[in-house]
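Progress report, Aim 2. The chain analyzed during this reporting quarter is listed below.
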Amino acid sequence: MELLVVLTVVGLLSALATPSLLTLKSSSLSAAGMEFSGFLNLCRSKAIAERTSIRVAIVTRTADADDAYRKYAGWEWDKTTDSYIQYSEWRFLPVSAVFENQVPGYVARSGYAQSEKSVIEGDYVMADGFQNEAEVISSDGQTLRIQYLTFSPSGRAYIEGGEKRNLIFVIRESLAGEAQSVDNWIQFTVDTLTGRARIFRP
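Predicted structure tokens for the chain:
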């Protein structure tokens, strides 16, 4: 009888805790999305103000595998060296979030995509097939593989090889197993003509 009471209490506590944990994960993803959105705006503003080109670079391969698709920074065109040089500190998504590394099918099935098809019609920044990949040496001497978008001095955004009006990023919750389905993410749709980003949630 005592064992049944204990199991019942444990079950009730678990039921109460689960929504809180989900909210916590959602809050973490929201904070990551707000920070990345602010960083995009900051890079665009810097490109315009300093009349230079700024890259938003996301690490796709590094010695520390945990940093892949979570680590990003700004790189500025340097006329002296005729190359891009890292100007910002590295920023990181929380451990519970990653940049999606392929065109996500779940986005096309979302409610917002069904009501406004144009928001998912664009070039996916992290997809293969574009010329927006490079191997770079970071400010701390590491060799990294990155993918990036570039803001021009006019504030426009582009990726080499891109042809569509929009550029798309997706940050999703990291999954413990491949069998799990994605139900929480943030999509950034960057207008190539204005460089401004719109944010969408499921």
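Confidence is low (pLDDT under 50) at residues 3-7, 15-25. The two ends are 45 Å apart (CA to CA). These observations will guide the mutagenesis work planned for the next reporting period.
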